[in-house]
Specification:
Blueprint (H helix, E strand, L loop, with lengths): L17 E3 L7 H7 L7 E3 L8 H7 L5 E4 L7 H7 L5 E4 L9 H6 L3 E3 L3 H19 L2 H10 L19 E5 L3 H9 L6 E5 L5 H4 L6 E2 L2 H4 L5 E4 L13 H5 L6 E4 L8 H9 L5 E4 L10 H4 L4 E3 L8 H19 L15
Parallel strand pairs: 1-2, 1-3, 3-4, 4-5, 6-7, 6-9, 7-8, 9-10, 10-11, 11-12
The chain binds glyoxylic acid.
The site of glyoxylic acid (GLV) has 7 residues, from loops.
Length: 342
């Protein structure tokens, strides 16, 4: 797997077209200007993610570089509309499931993303959801704010004990490792699934073990999904796999919505098949399955895993830097493998 070598296009200064297709946190314009890109070469379309794809294709016609949000689909039609001058797509995310990598490879378009600033804030949101669902935070807040709380009751809103339990991280990469690291504070046994062994997770203090999904699910008190979305992880959590979880366990998803079959999850929650679910991502964003909205113990967030000022500013810096690096003829810092080495 490798990046294509990239085209040795060298347009005359001023002839480049850099499209920023979202309202980046920070000041993308200044960052581009600082890298010697002229104002007339830059177009910012802050709301491209909510425009129809045909309109976005018109906008990017003749683009040399594109900074894209995860809500814009970069497929063959997009790339063909942009045309042969396109050299680099910089994705304002770590996930790259909105991009047809093979189509980029075929057209020698480089793809970059921004993993580092996504790691810690997303792990924090995973733990926020883990604690919130385990301890039934949503029901507690609703009751406290309702004015109808009758006072201390020894059986009110009993959750489950996370300390000393077992955490299963599904698809342990950088974010999964950060989720696992936080489990040390709760003295948890950590299991993980991954395509390859993660030696860094095996030694103390995490002392994790790699398991298969089917072996890990029945043991886990908390299941956190941090896998990327691809054809083998779509609906990885479905009626069968959710059925393997303990009745007292919680499921947290901070990866991509389609990793979970939302219908099956809603059914399991309504049937009390698992204790709860915390979701930051959904199958058909921004729509949320109404059966999830009225399920008992769910905590739902609007895809804010990496939403901190500091981390999103850093993401802007990384994405702009890699566009400028490619336009300067240097290697990007965060390239994504787009296909077989050629
Ligand atoms: C956010 O969801 C990302 O992939 O960065």
């Amino acid at each position: 797997m490798s990046q294509p070598p990239g085209r040795t296009k060298n347009p005359r200064p001023g002839a480049r077209r850099i499209h920023v297709l979202l309202d980046c946190v920070g000041d993308p314009l200044s960052l581009l200007l600082q890298r010697g890109i002229h104002r007339s070469e830059i177009t910012i379309t802050p709301d491209a993610g909510s425009l129809p794809p045909e309109r976005v294709r018109e906008i990017v016609r003749g683009a040399t570089a594109v900074l894209a949000p995860l809500t814009v689909t970069i497929d063959a039609a997009f790339l063909d509309a942009a045309g042969p001058a396109l050299r680099v797509i910089s994705n304002y995310a770590v996930g790259i499931d909105n991009i047809d990598l093979a189509a980029c490879h075929e057209r020698s378009v480089l793809v970059c993303n921004g993993p580092p600033p996504m790691v810690e804030p997303t792990a924090d949101i995973a733990w926020t959801l883990l604690l919130a669902t385990t301890r039934r935070l949503r029901a507690g807040i609703t009751l406290a704010e309702s004015g109808s709380w009758g006072g201390y009751d020894s059986k009110l809103l009993l959750g489950h004990r996370l300390t000393g339990g077992t955490l299963l991280v599904v698809g342990a990469g950088r974010i999964g490792a950060a989720v696992a690291r936080r489990a040390i504070g709760w003295h948890m046994r950590v299991l993980y699934t991954a395509r390859s062994e993660k030696p860094d997770l095996h030694g103390p203090p995490i002392s994790a073990s790699r398991v298969t999904l089917d072996a890990g699910l029945p043991l886990a008190d908390a299941v956190v999904l941090t896998t990327s979305l691809n054809s083998s992880t779509r609906h990885l959590m479905n009626a069968r796999t959710i059925g393997l979880m303990k009745r007292t366990a919680v499921l947290v998803n901070v990866s991509r919505g389609p990793v979970v079959d939302e219908g099956a999850l809603a059914e399991a929650l309504h049937a009390g098949r698992i204790h709860g679910a915390g979701l930051d991502v959904f199958e058909h964003e921004p729509k949320i399955d109404p059966r999830l909205l009225d399920a008992g113990n769910v905590v739902l967030l609007p895809h804010i895993g990496s939403a901190t000022v500091e981390d999103r500013m850093e993401l802007t810096r990384i994405c702009i830097a890699d566009i400028a690096n490619v336009l300067d003829g240097s290697a990007p810092s965060f390239p994504v493998d787009t296909g077989p080495a050629i």
